[in-house]
Write a structure and sequence with these properties.
It is a single chain. By secondary structure, this protein is of the alpha/beta class. It is built from 16 helices and 14 strands. Helix 9 links the parallel strand 7 and strand 8. Helix 2 crosses helix 3, helix 2 crosses helix 8 and helix 4 packs across helix 7. It starts with a strand and ends with a helix.
Length: about 425
């Protein structure tokens, strides 16, 4: 059964286990090097051995995407269309805006926004096929205007291939793990080199992204998924259902409830046990509940939010919007009893590729802004440069950069 503890024990509980990447890095280094040196030859070897590839190329033919779409039932197609619409609408809201401003007479400055040329989306398909991750990674890139969007998935399920066809993405590759990340980072004859790789993956995917950061852009280093729920009251069955929805992802997942009510804590714990009885994913969820999850009883909702800010959870559920202003760190926030995390995972619109392991202290989830560059532009008239010259030359000479100062003075004298 899930642990029930008080706030004095919360510190140790909320101290995450370090993501053990060192061992995974030792495993993936030779894979990355092999793909860098041998290109498609190494990529095909790994894809055949690890991904079950049985075709002559990792590139999945368009006919296969079209055929997969034809096999999808109407309910799934409708779900993809609705989710895609909301994801696309939200992504448009996230894009930085170009614009210019007259900072002072003769000095015009602003920014232009340009998309990346190529991106690679990693879509896991091991324990579960994740067409939702395909939508969450591809659609923001499309909104940003990225011209080349590639998808890697190790075991391409019909739902993934059919969704790619709906989104008009045809550069889909059957490859996974570190060799897929290496192919995107270095490029091969078959797989385009990309500017950024996004999407979740296992520890080997994460280790490969970490090692190749700098060679290629990445979204973030992700650890096991996690959710935190704050509640003073509520329906125990719904709270338990939300916790299990997170726990079923992975045995390393964490589901934490913070409440001011010991009665609610006990009721939720009992509900978790009851719902585990007939949950098809109970074998995984029970491990996550027993090993990584807990219910923490605190003295006030304010204390609960303070704990949440310390933890910086990937998902944070609040009872209502009254606590929102106190939240400083979270990957995504869900407000009210009718905003389950599952809605955000699939169809609400905000992205479900989110920072874990405390990275929500530094950034939010994947967004359309991750697929563009914001480029500063400045235009200065001769009179404006003359007014700026004393400040420019004084600062340049203070830093010992005489040529900087002279480059301005030459224009003023001229």
């Amino acid at each position: 059964m899930i642990r029930i503890v008080d706030s004095r024990q919360a510190g140790r509980l909320l101290h995450r286990r370090a993501l053990r990447l060192a061992q995974a890095e030792r495993v993936v280094r030779p894979i990355l090097d092999a793909v860098r040196r041998k290109g498609d030859k190494a990529l095909l070897e790994y894809a055949r051995r690890l991904d079950g590839l049985d075709r002559p190329s990792v590139k999945i033919p368009e006919e296969e995407l079209r055929a997969a779409y034809a096999r999808l039932n109407c309910a799934f197609r409708d779900a993809v269309r609705l989710a895609s619409k909301n994801i696309r609408t939200f992504a448009r809201m996230q894009l930085p805006r170009p614009g210019f401003r007259q900072l002072c007479r003769g000095l015009r400055a602003g920014q232009i926004v340009r998309p990346l040329d190529a991106v690679g989306a990693y879509v896991p398909s091991g324990r579960y096929p994740l067409p939702s991750t395909l939508m969450m990674t591809v659609i923001p890139a499309q909104v940003a205007g990225v011209r080349t969007i590639c998808v890697a998935t190790p075991r391409p399920a019909p739902e993934i291939l059919g969704t790619a066809w709906v989104l008009k993405v045809t550069d889909v590759f059957q490859m996974g793990g570190a060799h897929a990340i290496a192919a995107f980072a270095y490029g091969t004859r078959t797989v385009p080199k990309v500017d950024r790789i996004v999407g979740p993956g296992n520890v080997y995917v994460t280790a490969a992204k970490k090692l190749l950061a700098g060679e290629v852009g990445i979204d973030f280093i992700a650890g096991p998924t996690e959710t935190m729920i704050i509640a003073a009251e509520g329906e125990p069955a719904l709270i338990a259902a939300d916790m299990l929805a997170q726990a079923e992802h992975d045995a390393d997942a964490a589901a934490i409830l913070i409440t001011t009510s010991r009665q609610l804590a006990t009721a939720v714990a009992q509900q978790i046990e009851e719902q585990l009885e007939d949950l098809p994913t109970a074998a995984v969820a029970r491990q996550a509940i027993q090993n990584n999850s807990a219910i923490i009883v605190v003295g006030s909702l304010e204390e609960a939010v303070d704990l949440a800010n310390q933890y910086a959870p990937e998902h944070l559920s609040l009872p209502d919007s009254s606590l929102l202003d106190r939240v400083r760190h979270a990957g995504c926030i869900f407000i009210g009893p009718h905003s389950p995390e599952a809605a955000g995972d699939y169809a609400a619109g905000p992205n479900h590729v989110l920072p874990t392991g405390g990275a929500a202290r530094l950034r939010g989830g994947l967004s359309a802004a991750d697929f563009v560059k914001v480029i500063a532009v400045q235009e200065i008239s001769a009179p404006a440069l003359a007014r700026l010259a004393p400040a420019i030359t004084a600062l340049a000479r203070a830093e010992g950069l005489e040529a900087h100062a002279r480059s301005v003075e030459a224009r003023i004298r001229g």
